Amino acid sequence: MQSFVKHVLLIVCFYFFTATTYAAEFPNFVFIIADDIGWNDIGCYGNRVVKTPHIDRLSAEGMQFNNAFLTASSCSPSRCSIISGKYPHSNGAAELHTPLPESEIPFPLLLKQNGYYTAHAGKWHLGNFTHRAFDRYTDNNGYNNGDGGEANWVRFLRERPKDKPFFFWLASLDAHRPWGADTFHITFDPREVEVPMYYADTEETRQDIASYYNEIARFDYYVGKVREELERQGVLENTVIIVMSDNGSPFPRCKTRVYDSGMKTPFVVYGPKKIRTGAQKTESLISAVDIAPTILELAGVNAPDSYQGTSFSAVLNDPEKEIRSEVFSEHNWHDYEAHERMVRTQKYLYVLNARPALANGGPADSKKSPTQHALNIVRDEERLTPAQADVFVTPRPAEELFDVEKDPLQLLNLASLPDYQEVLSEMRALLNNWRKETGDTTPEHLTPDWYDRETGGPLKVKRVRGTMPGQKE
Known about the structure:
Blueprint (H helix, E strand, L loop, with lengths): L1 H24 L2 E7 L18 H9 L1 E3 L2 E2 L5 H10 L3 H4 L15 H7 L3 E6 L30 H6 L7 E6 L31 H31 L5 E7 L14 H4 L3 E4 L9 E3 L3 E2 L3 H8 L14 H5 L9 E5 L8 E5 L3 E6 L10 H4 L2 H11 L5 H4 L9 E5 L17 H18 L35
Parallel strand pairs: 1-5, 1-6, 2-8, 3-9, 4-5
Antiparallel strand pairs: 2-7, 6-7, 10-11, 11-12, 12-13
Helix pairs in contact: 7-12
Protein name: Heparan N-sulfatase
Keywords: Calcium, Hydrolase, Metal-binding, Signal
InterPro entries: Alkaline_phosphatase_core_sf, Sulfatase, Sulfatase_CS, Sulfatase_N
């Protein structure tokens, strides 16, 4: 009997030792993604008003990427691209509210299959087929995510199994309209906000931006709570934390646009054992499709050959490293018919617009915003500046070229200037090659408008989808 008990204890000890060693050997991951927060609306990225002490601390102790770009400036296409490691037109989820197909391989599924505990809490937007990538998830699963989407973040971390490495996809609803954080923790004074030059500096615009800042502050607060919980559990030192946004802010000329105001994202990586610490900043270009292969490499898991990104793990060890010379993004249907493509290098941004006859004023929620209302008044009074007029322009150029070093806001189109024809040709070739390599198409029958382009209100039309880019007519 005693020998049997000893045998059982040895087996139990062996499995306990194996499980704890496995959990300690491989890093944990906490991936935190905001909703509609612009890249420069975070304190560590230069915003002098908004309060983001917790993200700023992660940046000060980790690495801040100053040239991280999304593949789409729309919620679900951006998130589906991140989790699939593929561009929107390549993964079958190019348009807003189209689910990721079952044929695609979400990278958390590979982590799960290789011993990781995986969980999702908060905003979803990925479709039902992606549920299989997570051991626990909140989407349509009886959970209340709360107004900002962060209600289950700390709870899920506390209730995780302690014998496995873990991956958490924590998604907020902050800072998506309508606003819900005007009385939460930090309340910003509208008189102190920064009003971009392409908006009308009015009282209603300032209050709109102040409410947006309140949402950012709430998001940052919960980032801090996640870090506190990781510290309490004693696992912070073996956890890689990534903080980013899914697209630009929900304001005119930002969300859905292919300019930096729509496609550039804040991107902070913290992880003492995996990256160089001490306020490291890198100018290296990275794309959202690079996230999946990077996390998989850090976890010791092979990425599928179908993934279209490149791991940036080398940059985490050396901020001077460069893994790519350009990034690519796209704008497809998001409330309105659209087909734009862009390529961005360190110096230039090139835009190809297949629907130049259509204005590009932003999504419906932005159309209904106080900031847009203020711009409409200035337009009706014929007082628009060139920067403010951008969201109303029609027809738009079929091609745009910007020198982003001299013109960081992308206000001056250089495509027609003789001195830039060689650059224009080079950028055009880069984009055309990428489109061919990734199977991009320009369907004749795209999904049409479902909302009014002036008011943002729903149109009385039959809501049918056209042909998505990457699919055959």
